[in-house]
Amino acid sequence: MMNDIRVKRVGIRKGIYILPNMITTASLFCGFVSIVHSIKGDHLTAAWMILLAGVFDGLDGRIARLTHTHSDFGIEYDSLCDLASFGLAPAILAYTWTLDHFHQLGWAAAFLFFACGAMRLARFNVQVSDVEKKHFQGLPIPIAAYVISSYVIFHYRWKGDVDVSSVLLLGLTLGLALLMVSNVKYRSFKKIDFKRKESFFALVFVACVLFVVVSAPNEMIFFTALAYVASGLVEEVFQLSKKARGDAPLLAGEANEHTPTPQELRLITNKK
Q: What share of the chain in percent tops pLDDT 90?
């Protein structure tokens, strides 16, 4: 009887571990479908599939944390799926949509986005337990993919000029690629403690943002993703300005040296 109970418990445990990985697979499937539609020329559907992949990518990690089913396999599998859905899929979307107009420069920019996304994920896996526990070091690859895909949707919504969009997309692709491998810190919302008063107001703010996004998704998804990209840059500039003014704490190895004036030397001598 005891053996039967143990077998059932092991079976339930395995089922719980499978659940987040199934959601990760759904994210991978959306990325694959996006690539297929990009090749077929249906760029609008391809862009929406990348956004849907982001929804599944957000769910798998939260379900794993809620059910305490973290595993090394899940972390590695999630990174591989992210590289396909948020690295390869948006790179192919960008190239087949307008970057092919720039010939070698276009595919080089798309490859740079893909390569920087791979390096970003590799660095995240190495630093996930220490450096990136509270902040992301570099732009997260799903946000970079969201900027590109939501820009395609924004273009189709407002029927923008293709030549202008090509130049803007080229700049976005190069800028996002470099931000992914940069040391710019971006805030992570994974460790929010809802018992704190400040976290409650943060939750209300997130609800308001979701309301605005849902009310006009074709426009607001792009601007929200762009605002997150800008937030890290603004915070980085603010921190650099504080260091320049001397308000920030000294870095390791820096000495707070002060050369005494003749009056101060005289006072010190008299005290002795």
A: 51
